[in-house]
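go over this:
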Amino acid sequence: MMSIYVGKEGGPHIAVSLTIHPDLPDLTLQTGGARSFLLATGHQTAMYHRLNSYCDDVSNVRTTNWSNHLQNRAFLIEDLKRESSMSKNIKQILKPTKQHRDEIRPDIFIVYFRSPLCVGFSQIHLLETVKSIWKAGGYVYIQTLGVLLSEGDNLDVVINDLLREKKKSEMRRYRKKVGNPE
């Protein structure tokens, strides 16, 4: 399944990663956020078409080894590796002349996530996911933070936000369990 959105010539290639789980934002929020991001990056058709995305439903999964249960995310990373490598091969074949060098921008591969908790369910899982995407040649965009992360960026702020989100979701579950929804 190939669902990386190809942008205008030289523009970003975008993959949308969605995950269904009780601790994460509702799928409607994740999808709506992805549409707004796609529109902001020049993908005008995103508003009118069903989003082709990589979606995993782990709503009933309890584990500490999330990577084994997010198969579509693994497909996303494999597709990203393939696209990135094809792009590099094409650039080598079509080496621009000096006068056209400035007109051709390098391809950018971006993976969209709604929030840090959507990237990883734990600090280790988040780091594993981000580093896999970087290794595959991509950037990570986290909408709630408004950041585009490139290889080597400091992830401390993202991890701190992940831990806050995780604590809030644990508190929501606890309140629901004891019968106090607020």
